[in-house]
TrEMBL record, chain B:
Family named by the database record: Belongs to the binding-protein-dependent transport system permease family.
Organism lineage: Bacteria, Pseudomonadati, Pseudomonadota, Alphaproteobacteria, Hyphomicrobiales
Annotated TM spans: 12-31, 82-106, 113-134, 146-167, 248-269
Subunit details: The complex is composed of two ATP-binding proteins (UgpC), two transmembrane proteins (UgpA and UgpE) and a solute-binding protein (UgpB).
Subcellular location: Cell inner membrane; Cell membrane
Gene3D superfamilies per record: MetI-like (1.10.3720.10)
Protein name (database record): sn-glycerol-3-phosphate transport system permease protein UgpE
Family annotation (InterPro entries): MetI-like, MetI-like_sf
Organism expressing this protein natively: Bradyrhizobium japonicum
Membrane topology, as annotated: Multi-pass membrane protein
């Protein structure tokens, strides 16, 4: 698609794209290229010289059990966060879509957590569930749970998933509500006239009609769980106890922070890049089919 | 309308209020904790009702900071966050709207190549190029500066796409009319296109301001000086690994202050926020 009415100018268009192009080349492409190049190099212990080693960094990485664990953990986190947050948000959206009094107020009261930054989410939840002073930990211990997410890796992982899912409820709720409101009311009426009970109406009518929204949100939630949980993890557990809450992004960060192996860190970045490309590709293919301009 | 029987309606109301309670509870606890005495909280005896230390805690948080080694008034952190968020939001909108203008309203060599170069940055979030980007910013001597905080983040494929999409819907007659009036490309942009883009810019600004304010990984990497910390980074540094030294009322007051601006924006500008969110995700 192109505009018919245009301006003639040789230099002006370049001047207009120059600022964005400069930022993109200096801060996006150049570092990305550096990461790709680094991932094929091996530095000596003093960082003085480096040799080209083909895929050795990648091979080392795949042989490293810690990396494999981080991959599995990231996928488990993503799945758990997406499923729990999506199902709770869908329940709320279906309720808020009913003709209820005060539905605008409900929407306002449910969407604001979108604005809470991940590190703050981490701080809020670790405070509530802190082993020695958390207000909720008291009740957990009262129930006989040996609660200490700072020592127990599984509890720490559960806590991260809980906090990350909590933050994402508002986003999912908003998009589910929009998706529900786009379904013509007559469809529900037809199903009701046919005698379908509400639960049946939901599973046979609403849910299938909502599947594009569900798929879209699934991708968005996975991307969120991959990248935006960094702040939550960093304020809550800093990857610990041990490495039980280290995700792929957290591993790139912490491996590099220790000033460790540059080549390995670069290889990890490149693998993440490939994952983003795949996820964005899926998202765009889907969006193109759904939205027509 | 499918009529809901009374009982089902009550169930819906109840579920929504439970949802609201779950969503609000952590924040309620933070507000309550920020008004209490640290000793009480440290003993695990925090009350679930607000205490009487509101003014004392918030005064200390905003103007003094914690007593630890990284003492820095949170007021200053908020200022840093504000500068960064505004620079990111305004910068992204400014450079995106002019590149979209060039791509839509001009024909020039490499036009589509440039469009794709901008577009592909969608797939290069800062998380996948952390250390090489850090190195470039360090080489440019931009560590611990506002430029270093904002510049590497202000490219925006989404905003460029959005403005491109919008410009395509602007009728060609407008351009022809202003050309008859003797307007050149810059005049047309300034007098016609910008005023038409106001709502789009506002919706985008709301989303980008929140994203900018909530940045974490990047400021964490490139700020080493306490007086350049943003509030999101500052709050993490307040939680010391030796729990006994963490001043929880101040941490919680900082959490509340960190939430305040973006939450206010969402609630006060809800229409623009929803519009911006839906548009940027397309």
């Amino acid at each position: 698609m192109q505009k018919q009415a245009i301006f003639q100018s040789k230099l002006l268009p370049y001047a207009l794209v120059a600022p964005q192009l400069a930022i993109v080349l200096i801060f996006f492409y150049w570092p990305a290229l550096q990461a790709v190049i680094q991932s094929f190099l091996l530095q000596d212990a003093f960082g003085l010289s480096s040799t080209f080693v083909w895929f050795e960094n990648y091979i080392e990485l795949f042989k490293d059990p810690a990396y494999f664990e981080a991959v599995v953990r990231t996928f488990v986190f993503s799945f758990a966060i997406a499923v729990s947050s999506l199902s709770f948000a869908l329940l709320l959206a279906v309720m808020a879509d009913k003709p209820l009094r005060g539905s605008m107020l409900y929407r306002t009261l449910l969407i604001w957590p979108y604005a809470v930054a991940p590190p703050v989410v981490g701080v809020l939840w670790i405070f509530m569930l802190h082993p020695s002073l958390g207000v909720l930990s008291r009740y957990l211990r009262g129930l006989g749970v040996d609660w200490n997410p700072l020592l127990d890796g599984n509890q720490a992982a559960g806590l991260i998933i809980l906090a990350a899912a909590w933050k994402q409820i508002s986003y999912n709720f908003l998009f589910f509500l929009a998706g529900l409101q786009a379904i013509p009311r007559s469809v529900f009426e037809a199903a009701a006239i046919d005698g379908a009970r509400p639960m049946r109406r939901f599973w046979t009518v609403t849910f299938p009609l909502l599947s594009p929204t569900i798929f879209f949100l699934l991708v968005v939630n996975i991307v969120y769980a991959f990248f935006d949980t960094f702040g939550i993890i960093d304020t809550m557990t800093r990857g610990g106890p041990g490495t039980s809450t280290v995700t792929l992004v957290y591993k790139v960060y912490s491996d590099g922070l220790l000033g460790g192996n540059l080549g390995s860190s670069a290889a990890q970045s490149v693998i993440l890049m490939v994952m983003v490309i795949v996820l964005t590709g899926i998202q765009f293919r889907f969006v193109e089919r759904k939205v027509t301009y | 309308m499918v009529e809901e029987e009374g009982f089902r309606r009550y169930v819906a109301h109840a579920i929504l209020w439970i949802g609201i309670a779950i969503v609000a509870f952590p924040v309620y606890i933070a507000i309550v904790a920020s008004t209490q005495d640290n000793a009480l909280i440290a003993n695990g005896q925090m009350s679930l009702l607000p205490g009487g230390h509101f003014f004392e805690v918030y005064y200390k948080t905003i103007f003094v900071g914690t007593s630890g080694s990284t003492r820095e008034p949170v007021g200053n952190m908020m200022l840093n966050s504000l500068v960064m968020a505004l620079a990111i939001a305004i910068g992204k909108i400014a450079i995106s709207i002019i590149s979209a203008y060039a791509i839509v309203y001009f024909r020039f060599p490499f036009r589509m190549a440039i469009f794709w170069i901008i577009f592909i940055t969608l797939m290069l979030p800062v998380e996948v190029r952390i250390y090489p980007t850090y190195k470039i910013v360090a080489d440019l001597h931009m560590l611990d500066s506002y430029a270093g905080l904002a510049l590497p983040l202000i490219a925006s494929a989404t905003a460029t796409l959005l403005f491109r999409q919008f410009f395509m819907t602007v009728p060609d007659e407008l351009l022809e009319a202003s050309r008859i009036d003797g307007a050149g490309p810059l005049r047309f942009f300034w007098d016609t296109l910008l005023p038409l883009s106001r709502t789009n810019m506002a919706a985008l600004f709301v989303i980008l301001f929140i994203l900018g304010w909530n940045q974490y990984l990047w400021p964490l990497l490139i700020t080493t000086r306490d007086d350049m910390q943003t509030i999101q980074v500052g709050i993490r540094k307040m939680i010391t690994t030796t729990d006994a030294l963490t001043e929880w009322p101040i941490v919680m007051a900082t959490a509340v202050l960190a939430m305040l601006p973006p939450v206010f924006v969402v609630v006060a500008m809800q229409k623009l926020f929803v519009r911006g969110l839906v548009e940027t995700e397309k």
